[in-house]
Amino acid sequence: MPVHATAAHAQPTSSVAEATAWDDALLRRYDTSGPRYTSYPTALSFHDGFTADDMAQALERSNASQKPLSLYVHVPFCRKICFYCACNKIATKNTSLAEPYLSRLDREMVLTSRHLDTQRPVQQLHWGGGTPTFLTLAQMSDLVDRLDARFGLSNAPDRDYAIEIDPREADVFTLRHLQSLGFNRLSLGVQDLDPQVQAAINRVQPRVLTETLMDEAHRLGFRSLNLDLIYGLPFQTERRFAETLRQVIELGPARLSVFNYAHMPTRFAPQRRIQLADLPSADEKLAMLHTTIEMLTQAGYVHIGMDHFARPDDSLAQAQRNGTLQRNFQGYSSHAECDLIGLGVSAISRVDDIYAQNPTQLAHYEAALDEGRLATIKGLRLNKDDLIRRDVIERFMCDMVIDLDAIGQRWHIDAADYFATAFERLAIAERDGLVQREGLRLSATPIGRLLIRHLAMAFDTHLQRQDGQRYSKIV
């Protein structure tokens, strides 16, 4: 597969430029629904004609590349449901229920590793959920031991081993244990520090819980800390969210993810507990986004793109400057060119030229593994056009700049002709000042960075076949 170009990449946008570019009316006009492009084609293009055998063949093909591996492990258990949640999870307080799940995970690892050259280094490891810290310390140790036995984990200083943490379900002993297991990056769910907002989303989490964990993580030398925030939740206002941001800036995380809450109660049952009347208006949400960008950039954070911010010395910002930033199912990643293997219920793999997804229902996941086969239930093998467009969309989403002449040389195509339709689709966005075009080089303007999903959609040939499918709003 072609390597990414490193020549065309964006420099951090200053807070002054972002502020002067702000245009409420323009943002409202472009605030339609669209993919987040954690993959291209997106998961809506996956089909059940793609089988476990296809996944096994892709794993074997991938060995020739000798790319490092990235492992994602989905832990679906939560002790309590947060009402905003759209993740695949199982609510329970009984940690013994995780035991049969860990056994199935191990079976999946064994079946997967049979097709892999396990000398390939595991450069990246990510535990998501659910709440991975739902597991007991002994269960966490067991899972790491199994991963190491099947794939061989790394102790290299540049490894990126991350875990998502609910500060209500972890303490300083948890962090010390995670460090001993090899984790060096933490992502803490905060969402909002306002007590009324926390009560409305069923996530009461005093600041002291987050602050205590962050202090301990710094003492232990964790390389990077990420905090997750969400704007658009019930009872939030621009003023109140600014207070949360002020406190978060005081805490000084290396990275911040500030997500737009997508209210889809017909798809996600917990969201039915949130009253529509309690949600902020579209104008209020825009004001929150504006304040977020203004406050974080003034505090020294680089706006990586969309909902991600990082300190200039963090590996995420460094990767963007180097043109090696990648986008995957966990968002932006500093480790490019890994084959991603997803383990667990609902997990998605990106290996060689395929995507493969496991069942979202636990019973279906268990049944497949109990039959001795990989749990793949659907997926997609990319054709050449998909691979070309994935290259374009990923680089545009990561660098905010795309040199289509370089793309043409890399893929041996006449880029001007190949992307003629995309240029037509981008004409209005160019006229509105979202993108600047110089020959075959496209650069997102400061306001275009906020609408990068819209700009990327110009290159998407699968969208027209997804009529009626629902994506979240772009802003």
UniProtKB/TrEMBL annotation:
Binds 1 [4Fe-4S] cluster. The cluster is coordinated with 3 cysteines and an exchangeable S-adenosyl-L-methionine. This is Coproporphyrinogen-III oxidase. It is found in: Cytoplasm. One of its GO terms (molecular function) is coproporphyrinogen dehydrogenase activity. Belongs to the anaerobic coproporphyrinogen-III oxidase family. Monomer. Signal peptide: none annotated. Pathway: Porphyrin-containing compound metabolism; protoporphyrin-IX biosynthesis; protoporphyrinogen-IX from coproporphyrinogen-III (AdoMet route): step 1/1. The gene is hemN. Its cofactor is [4Fe-4S] cluster. It catalyses: coproporphyrinogen III + 2 S-adenosyl-L-methionine = protoporphyrinogen IX + 2 5'-deoxyadenosine + 2 L-methionine + 2 CO2. It is an enzyme of class 1 (oxidoreductase). The keyword Iron-sulfur applies. Keywords: 4Fe-4S, Cytoplasm, Iron, Iron-sulfur, Metal-binding, Oxidoreductase, Porphyrin biosynthesis, S-adenosyl-L-methionine. SMART domains: Elp3 (SM00729). Residues 63-299 form the Radical SAM core domain. Its EC number is 1.3.98.3. PROSITE patterns: RADICAL_SAM. NCBIfam families: hemN.
